[in-house]
Amino acid sequence: MSGPDEFEAIARLFRPLTRGAPEAFGLLDDAAAVPARPGYDLVITKDAIVEGVHFPLGEAPDLVARKLLRVNLSDLAAKGAEPYGYFLAVSWPAAWTEEARAAFAHGLGADGEEFGLVLLGGDTTSTPGPMTASATLLGWVPAGGMVRRGGARPGDLVLVSGPIGDGVLGLAAARGEIDEPALAHRYRLPAPRLDLRETLRSRASAAADVSDGLIADAGHIGEASGTRIALRLEALPLSAGARRWLDRQPDRAAGLLALASGGDDYELVCTAAPDRADGLGMTVIGEVVAGAGIVVTYEGDVLDPGAGGWRHA
Ligand code: ADP
Ligand code: MG
Prior knowledge:
Bound molecules: adenosine-5'-diphosphate, magnesium ion
Number of helices: 11
Helix content: 25-40%
Low-confidence stretches: 307-313
Strand content: 15-25%
CATH superfamily of the largest domain: PurM-like C-terminal domain
Number of strands: 11
Structural class: alpha+beta
Largest sheet: 7 strands, mixed
CATH topology of the largest domain: Phosphoribosyl-aminoimidazole Synthetase, Chain A, domain 2
């Protein structure tokens, strides 16, 4: 819903983000119309952010916008989908100035170009509450080709695409609790692993992005697949910053458990049959076995899931 001022603002802030896509009709119609693409499925995902919950008051508006797109792009990457377009709902508090709104739109534009996304439509409101925004992203996969969470089979390997724990350490760094500027930057501006989507589609039996934490997200794959997941924490790939942090921890197993329990890594966790896993170029961190649930070990010792505090109720 929009008043006259909003129409002007939509045209100024958001129309450029359609990048001329004819499907968006310049944001002048009630809806967009996307022609069906024969032989492809649309993969659709949505994430919302709330000021003070998902980002702190005073965060740079362009980073807020780019992170909103990137957390959604990470879902598309995990599903093997090629980014296409998005819908945007945004609620502006009065405290968000014209400059802040323009910076937000500018951030969307920068990442729209970087990742090949066009804005297709959305909704704009004002709010007496905190700034909130949500994006619905659309991507394409060859028909039937979306990489599901439910395809893992006993005997498959479990792999991750990159460092684990940088999200939770990055949050601590962004809050000034630890001195790791590179991790703080990565937390504020994650890098979705879209580079992996083709190999994932051809080689992985199941995949998810690491947004809730490695153990939780690997657990989601196990649950959806009706299998048990066994993870070896000593095998986790770690960034230089995470290794520095871990070396300062009195209990290495507990430290690794914390890194594997934190969220916001935006790497991919997947499963693959051993003969297909090689070409993924990822790190093997465990196996899929018969049964249910998840078992986490450190150098052969089974860790108590309760002690890590990672269990999602
Ligand atoms: P309606 O009241 O019919 O739902 P609006 O007046 O809210 O429509 O929106 C008019 C047009 O502007 C629509 O094409 C809508 O998709 C677009 N639009 C509104 N807000 C946004 C936004 N935040 N991002 C992108 N497009 C938007
Ligand atoms: Mg309308």
